[in-house]
Input
Amino acid sequence: MWKKLLLGPRPSNEAVENPLYNGIDRGRLPVHTAIIMDGNGRWAEGRGLLRTAGHTAGVDALKQVLKVAIDLELPALTVYAFSTENWKRPHTEVDFLMRLFVDYLTKEIDEMDEDNVKLRFLGRMDELSPALKDLARVAVERMKDNTGVCFNVAMNYGGKDEILRATREIARRAQARALSPEDVDEKLFESCLDTEGLPPVDFVIRTSGDMRLSNYLLWQAAYAEFWFTDTNWPDFTPACFVEALKDFGKRKRRFGGLKNK
Ligand code: IPE
Ligand code: IPE
Ligand code: MG
Output
């Protein structure tokens, strides 16, 4: 089903003609790209700025990367905005980030909707501020019937937390005798994850040089390809994204078998 989306209607002429996209094999684009937008703090510190300036600059990078996803009609893009571990940061930085998310959503909702983006959030939304929760709920509702890029923002998200929540839900159903242990298979488990209905992650990009998952999409990225770059997130341009996408197109994906898929 997701493969077919790549062969769907062609992007606008403007996108097709953009030389930035020259050389991309549109039949070999990832179906679900997940980005760990890391290095905002280091970007700012390297310029003698406050870490928060790096987060602000990171929002601009995100806007441009989402535009590329829209132009190339990537079926799904998921970005890591705030992890369950990021609460360990100083209060001032956490507060700044939460305000930045509110600001970002307020400003970007109209354009995302015009671009036919389908927005969704992954993670434990109930622990976020009422303002952020309300905005997110309204935005998701408004875009729920859109048919373009599935744009997922992982906020207060942790892969372990998500797996535990799914496990608890399954245990509850078993306790209520709504299912038996034999009913628990990948399909059922996936239907209890925040990513229900989304295709598996096939491409993970992490900026700023660290090579780890940091508790991101642990189940979903089970067979993903990885792309690491030393570039800090605010400097990650559309050209950087295109370079990564082209590399993905060259990967040999065997899934344990012998044939490249
Ligand atoms: C990523 O940048 C943004 C968030 C985690 C919210 P960082 O803030 O982690 O930047 P570095 O890794 O400290 O440079
Ligand atoms: C991962 O980055 C989380 C986000 C990008 C939101 P971190 O900067 O929090 O990860 P660690 O601490 O380097 O593992
Ligand atoms: Mg970091």
